[in-house]
Structure formats: structure tokens, C-alpha cells
Design goal:
By secondary structure, the chain is mainly alpha-helical. Helix content is about 70%, strand content about 0%. The radius of gyration is 19 Å and the shape is globular.
């Protein structure tokens, strides 16, 4: 769910905004489509893990997503980046932005609802704000942003029902989902420090990033899982959709959005994803919510929005 594209973390991305011609489809429609794709990704993860091990779900997702990017690169006649140093940085980026968080979300959804996983994903801007204050000298704290950070984490505590002692909450699954959300901004900071200003095209970098993430999972998966004896059709279709749509097509849509309307508007998708994830989980998987979950989610999103407020510039 993450790429090298925007300046902040969004759910299911994978690389920097490309140089592409303005598409015919209105950007608002593409914005809505991207929100739907990423919102349904958590439902697809849940369905996928009902038939396959988490590592297998992630490997399939990355393989399908890489295939989509390979087709796009072939159509645009772009090749993979060159240079051992670039490939080394892409290997780290692929791990932090794809292999690690995708796997953590898959393991998390073994024990927590897809609804909760989608809400945990919305905390990425909060983690990003906290980390950037330490790691990125250009991100200056303001009262509004710090207030948003505090408000956002208050929302997290509300979602988790802290006043009830986290009763009924699967601590391990929730911790894995939050750790996955933390992995995105860590990866973004690394990318900004190592790959910013690269001479390679953004699509080329992203294709290389996804390819390396796929290879990482191809090595890990056989070590911790066994080959399925029965290939369940429903979960397999969910994994295929998760990869082709949520990891491949979504990246290309996001590219166009960021190039056309800028990263600030493009990143607003983040605030629609948990709403769609919750609606999908409730309507299609029969998941239930307590009052604290939607209330806390609203607080999280409000805090995340405040952390993205830039300082006023003098005229």
C-alpha cells in the first residue's frame, strides 16, 4: 500500500509521481476509484488469509502488482533503473514500504477485523509527523501540527477502548497493524534521504522497488509456509484482485493524481480509506463495531488532517 509518490504516507502505494500526460478521466472520478480500491484492500486481505498463509497472500499480491507495473513500463518503453547503489536503496524501500507492512497487515487480519486494520492504517500520517520532527529538518513543528498529533493518538486510544483496559481487543493483531502503519513513514523518510532527485523515472524506480519486494517474499515464503494442497478459488481471486488493483493499478492511478492535482490533494485519499474499509467489512463480512471504533476513527482522521497543515508563509 505504499509508494515513492507523495510527501506523506497513504495506504497502498508503491513509488515517485511520474511524468505522464493528463488522462481523459476526470481526476475526481479517479480519486473516488482509488479510495474504493484501497478501502476494499483490507477486505481482500481478510478473504485471502482464509485460504492461504499471510506470507503467501503477500507474495501473490506483490507478484500480481509487479506484473501490472511491468506491463505499464513496457507500454511506456521504460526500463529498470541501473546502478548497484540505486538497487540497494530500492531493496530497503521495497522492504519498508511493501514487503514488511503488507505481511504485517496479513498476519494482523488473522485475528482482528478488516475494519480495525483499515483504521490502524489511517494512523500512518500521525507516525509520519512524529518521525519527521526528528528525522527531517525541513519539517518544522507548529502548534496546529503538534495538536493534531496529540488528537490523533487520543483517537487511537478511543478506537482501542483504553478506558476499558483494552477489553476484548486482540493485542497482538492490533500491534501488528499499527507496526505496519509505522513502517510506511519510516520507509518514506528513508526514500526522501536516499532516492530524492534520482535521474531515473519514477515509474522505473517503483517497478524496481516492487520487483525487489517480490523477490524478498519469494525467499521468505517457502521457509515459513508449505505449498497449499488445495487452491481455494475465492481467496485466490481476492489475492489476484489485491495485487492487480490494490498494488498495481492503484499506483498508476495515484501517479496521475499527484501529477495533476499535487500531493496535498492526492494524499486526501487516506481519509476516505478507513470509512470504505469499515463499510465493506460490515456489509460483506458481517463485522461489527462498538461506538468507540467509528468515534475514535473520526478523531484519528481529524488529527491526521491537522498534522498535514503547513505553516503560514509570509506574503
Amino acid at each position: 500500500m505504499s509508494s515513492l509518490t507523495a510527501t506523506t504516507t497513504t495506504p497502498d502505494q508503491a513509488g515517485p509521481a511520474p511524468e505522464s500526460p493528463r488522462p481523459r478521466l476526470d481526476w475526481r472520478l479517479r480519486f473516488g476509484l482509488l479510495s474504493l480500491i484501497w478501502g476494499f484492500s483490507f477486505l481482500l486481505i481478510k478473504v485471502g488469509t482464509q485460504g492461504y498463509a499471510p506470507f503467501q497472500v503477500t507474495l501473490g499480491r506483490l507478484a500480481f502488482g509487479t506484473a501490472v507495473l511491468a506491463v505499464a513500463m513496457a507500454v511506456r518503453r521504460e526500463g529498470l533503473p541501473r546502478g548497484a547503489r540505486t538497487w540497494g536503496h530500492l531493496a530497503v524501500a521495497g522492504f519498508l514500504l511493501n514487503a514488511l507492512p503488507f505481511s504485517l497487515f496479513a498476519f494482523a487480519e488473522l485475528t482482528i477485523p478488516s475494519t480495525l486494520a483499515g483504521i490502524c492504517n489511517a494512523t500512518s500520517p500521525l507516525w509520519g509527523m512524529a518521525l519527521s520532527l526528528v528525522a527531517l529538518s525541513e519539517d518544522r513543528p507548529t502548534r496546529v501540527r503538534v495538536a493534531g498529533l496529540g488528537l490523533g493518538f487520543l483517537g487511537v486510544l478511543t478506537v482501542l477502548g483504553a478506558w476499558q483496559g483494552f477489553e476484548g481487543l486482540d493485542a497482538r493483531g492490533t500491534a501488528l497493524a499499527l507496526l505496519a502503519s509505522l513502517s510506511y513513514p519510516v520507509g518514506w523518510i528513508y526514500v526522501r534521504r536516499t532516492l530524492a532527485g534520482s535521474s531515473h523515472s519514477n515509474l522505473s524506480l517503483t517497478g524496481g522497488q516492487l520487483l525487489l519486494a517480490t523477490l524478498q517474499l519469494a525467499v521468505v515464503t517457502p521457509l515459513f509456509t508449505t505449498m497449499p494442497t488445495d487452491f481455494a478459488v475465492g481467496p485466490l481471486l481476492a489475492v489476484a484482485a489485491l495485487g492487480t488493483l490494490g498494488t498495481g493499478l492503484a499506483v498508476l492511478i495515484q501517479y496521475g493524481l499527484v501529477a495533476e492535482v499535487g500531493p496535498t490533494t492526492g494524499q486526501m485519499v487516506t481519509y476516505f480509506v478507513p470509512v470504505i474499509a469499515a463499510a465493506a467489512g460490515i456489509a460483506l463480512l458481517g463485522e461489527t463495531l462498538t461506538w468507540s471504533t467509528p468515534v475514535g476513527a473520526v478523531i484519528v482522521l481529524a488529527g491526521a488532517a491537522l498534522t498535514q497543515a503547513g505553516p503560514r508563509r509570509p506574503r
